[in-house]
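Onboarding guide, step 5: your first structure request.
Type a short instruction followed by the sequence, for example:

Predict the 3D structure of this protein.
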Amino acid sequence: MKRRKLFILIPILSFFLFANVNPGFSQDSNEIKQILNSFKKADENLQHRLDVLEKKIDDVLWYERVGDYAFIDKVFMTGPPLWKEKNPTGQGAGNPVKFWSYVFIPKNIDFGKKYPLIVFPHGGVHADFSTYYTHIVKELIAQQYIIVAAEYRGSTGYGKSHYEKIDYGGLEIEDVHASRNFMINNYSFVDENRVGIMGWSHGGLISLMAVFDHPSDYKVCFAGVPVCDLIARMGYKDQSYRDLYSVDYHIGKPADENVEEYKKRSPAWNAHKLKTPLLIHTNTNDEDVNVLEVEHLIKSLKSEGKKFEYEIFENLPGGHSFDRMDTKKAKEIRLKIYKFLSKYLSPPKGFSSIKEMDEAAYR
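The system replies with structure tokens like these:
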């Protein structure tokens, strides 16, 4: 954010300095607005190009950090067409959305056997699957899970067009589900009867909605600090955050003007659909997803008589990232997550101790 402010601040300051030293320069407000808008567009375009560069660098880091333990690939696939077309009658309108997904395959598996699959959607309103998850990916690989991580519509690192395809809580769910289907259809060693899904934050929302919408396709789900109630969320976030949803290429209206649209994209309002074994984690000092959202989901699931497991952690260091860190406590919590997943997915080399996790991820 600081970088973006700097990019736009420099040309704006230059503009006003030029105006001050040139008395004949027009001060017409419309002209000034046009110039400022051009600066803003230039800044946005530069930001997308920087995101693409950052993504390419991070892709190299994946091979550096995980390449000794897994075959790493990025595969190109399709999801459903856009839910909102700029020109419904234009060339290409209605075509499936194209996107990339990461694939991680442990190098020590027997390709004549079947292995469980973890579908791993990333978080962030606009973000990507990055080496932030290195140790978690290594921990999963050590248990001989196959992993697929979709860079679904709205992800960063693929230019402005992909960014503006965002459909938060909407067809992004189907992109992630398409990555699951791709793995089963293209890799004979993936066991279609042992597929789980896990994610944190926005990735937690996607994981929840995926099992709500496709209960027979997932054996288990973990949702960490999941976004659960977009209506409540719009109430405690600032205007710049709300604008990410109300912008014309996304939902197009704020929550108060289209409550039902925000409601149908929120797990807490879809709890009646749960049929899949589920574990939920949250933290009372979460600075991103307020615990009240997750509490709403938990209460909704209970009111629907659903069976699930959950744990509300009290003020653990790390806030929103409390169980994704490299602290001993975070690893203890992740061990709980892995043991829960293992009950339903039976990985060949499931963990039984922190020592095994350390040997897998920190060597």
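Each response can be followed by summary notes, for example: The longest strand covers residues 70-81.
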